[in-house]
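From the pipeline queue, job 12 of 40. The input is one protein chain; the requested action is below.

Action: predict structure.
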Amino acid sequence: MAFAENNDSPTCPFCTFEVPSQQDLYFLIQHVELCHPENGTSPFITAEELTDERQAKTTEEESASSTETPSEDDAEDIFVDCPAECGETITLAELSTHMEMHGAEGMAVDESGSAAEDNHPPRLHGGRARVDGGAFTASPLDHLPSSQEAPGSSSPATGRGSRKKRKNRHGGLDWKDLLFGPAPANAKPKTTKSKQTAVRRLGRAELGPHAHEEQMPSWLRKQLERGAKVSITSQIGKDGRLVYTENVANETRGVIPVLAQLCEQDPSVSKAFLCHPNVLHIFKMAKEGGFCGYRNIQMLASFIQATRSPGFEHFPGRTPSILKLQDMIEYAWDMGINATGRIETGGIKGTRKYIGTPEAQALMISLGIGCDAHAYNSPGSTSVHDSLLEAVERYFSEDATHSSDKVCRTSMPPIYLQHPGHSLTIVGIERRDEGTNLLVFDPMFKTNPGICRLLGAKFHTASAEKLLKAYRRGNGYLKKYTSFETLK
């Protein structure tokens, strides 16, 4: 099979999906076999597996009590293992973006400063939040102000429970349509009650593939209890003394200053704003599953710890563990803060159920840490993602002391961002010739080797655009979603 090449980036002959280099042809082949199979059936998902999954869902639903009724849309959600063998379970609708980010994750820089693929990348780390197009893992935040959405577009509720079929990022059919064919033209649309009278127990669409588990596997709990590997390095400080530094395997400090230099050196960037430089990039450990929400809370906590902001005393020592955060969220529910989350989830302690904005908000409020939650999902004169971008730029520009600079380095905290299917940490925003991008730390992917080699250094590279790819989320990514939530 011949693949089209564009600037040494092989491209799918059937759509616009591409991988960074020839070394990633394996990912591209898997993409073609899954999305464009010759006989209409993907080798990655057999009919047997599909039948087993549906039967498992039926058994799971029947075993749940009346107070734990899963979402009626659970049967439509299909999770698959990542073809890159990062150990994570993701939805078919997000597979293309997931694989693209794996390619960007492995980007390295050779000695000449040009971008190259790392031939020996560290073990991939991954994970997934909820099913695409589905509801947030956050409870409805009725008190949140809403921004505007383009006229004529749908405006599903921001909270858990709202779902909408959509096309994929390239304008084609949804992955489920590729696998099973489009719905019959005479199919009756599902109807929903105009008013929800009681809090309901959520299912796989909102809480992920482990929505009804009582406890996570013992091996995973032990892994979370141990935490990531910690190493100590030593170097000579500016004063001539020996300085010891603690390094945690799934945490990277010093990424923000590197992103600032890359934005400076990318000629397509006209303006950029970045958050406080001490925010850590925290990502998942191997095979841990859908803990993105917790990892984003950890990144918010890293700012509070580094700046000794109000509430820092609640986060002594190292970054709080996922198990600790679960205890803190459960305690917030005990205090009555966003307590419907316990009914919706059935409790999260010791489980792999997904969390969202209300859980992050409840934790912060319970600790007396000021925070502002906002939902973007209402119809109006501006599209939802444009409203989000405008709000984020206003937020960071409030602290831009040198507003005339191309890159404004601020002391602002990062922003927790939730959209259907995933959550991220916004660490900045940039205006480019082709549009505006969020700059994010994605807990699903590790810090790429190219960035790691530039930590703590002043440098010049001709590969700024390629190295920034893993951190950029622009219109092509954001316009897939009709609702967002932020916590800052």
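Job complete. Residues 47-63 form the longest helix (17 residues).
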